[in-house]
Write the structure tokens for this entry.
Amino acid sequence: MHDADKHFYGNGLPYLKVGPLKGSLIVIEGTDGVGRSTQIEALTRWLEVQGYGVVNTGWTRSPLLSETINEAKAGHELNVTTFSLLYVADFADRLENQIIPALRAGFIVLADRYMYTAFARNAVMGADAQWTRKLFGFAVVPDLVLYLRIDVRRLIPRVLESKGMDYWESGMHLKLGGDIFDSFRRYQARILREYDAIADEVGFVTVDACRSVDAIQQDLRSHIARYLAGERPARRRATAGVRRQSAATLRTAARAKMR
Amino acid sequence: MNGLSVRHPYPGKLIIVEGIDGSGKSTQISLLHRWLLALGHKVFFTEWNSSELVRRAVRRGKKKDLLTPTTFSILHAVDFADRLTYKIIPPLKAGMTVLADRYVYTAFGRDVARGVDSEWVRNVYSFAPKPDLALYFRVPIEVSLQRILIGRTKLKYHEAGMDLGLSRDPAESFRLFQSQVLVIYDELVREFGLDVVDATADINQQQQQVRQLVADVLGLAKGERDARRG
């Protein structure tokens, strides 16, 4: 396909002979409940109909870690460091055992969330922004990041209509005060602020997710089609350690403390 | 993130031991533990890779050979972060002495020998506080190998670096892998100022050196250093 010269976000995986990665890594980012999985399902079918091999991967789906993460979340025993590291382990497992092999074999990998989710969540939890970014120094930089952007006001009814507000997605672990509704609103507002800062830092392609499922899908398809036709979005080659911290990151880091 | 350059702010003391398998560090730390208890100290002991949080994932990963050098490294960091939060910091806050069998330097040695980026793994562990005393038990590879072969019939798979496919013979694999770890430990001694103990010396002789260093760190007066009988 394109871009045989994929590069790593930091120093990569020195022990691994990665070789040329013929496939394409396309990431769909966006907060909890914004509709990522619905969109990815439709995109997968659409790409397969066109004859592309597609592999789906998603946050916390690694066979090695998903059970541990779910158990730990149920027990509420995680702090910001263990929380961050467990997700990095999940990511590393999927990257090495799933994403890189698929890219080698020429598949389109559609990733439901990528390291940017950790950037946003960790910042809101008060983790050091540089620490988080350097954790992902072994990550392959995606070819295309499509960011489903929504505001909290429109996000709330969407979440309530589907599976409801969940403890972690409402940031209850951060003890933001009030009930789950207030906590959700405050937590997600902070997450969205971080996403916006990261979108700017990394150069996401932002898609307005306040619209209908079909309208969003059409937008996503046209961006992917343009990418597959050889067009490249302006992407900043931000790498770990050389990034300036956004004002929002610094503010939330100073304010939010977990436990 | 202090990157291990800043000592913790707590009233307790953190004493850690490092060294490859067969260096005798576990024997030494257990003798130290006995002595401190006999002196009437409040002591908490913790060892590498012992937290419940990732026990299942590590066991499954090892059994099915699912671990890569990176996931191996991160899982041990989760273990460490969990123990730091729940096991190490509370006793330090309470003014106790914490004895740790292996610390972050183990990761810096083994994981880098496995091929992970050394800068990356230092960042992973940059939340760790600097110990009050870090003892490195230096031993030649053949001595440690002999000790292991006498004591146990089988070398541990990952400890021998069998996951790297260096050799099919566990003893040879151990020799190749841990020799690299030893080279890195020597660099860590300089980088982090670890106190070196000659681990080929008599057990008792090593223990006297260890107790001397610990007594200095804990500020024990001369008269306090002898454990009363009974």
Summary: Residues 24-250 of chain A form a domain with the Rossmann fold fold (CATH 3.40.50.300). Chain A touches chain B through 32 residues (CB under 8 Å). Chain A has one domain: 24-250. The beta strands of chain A are 24-29, 54-58, 108-112, 144-149, 205-208.
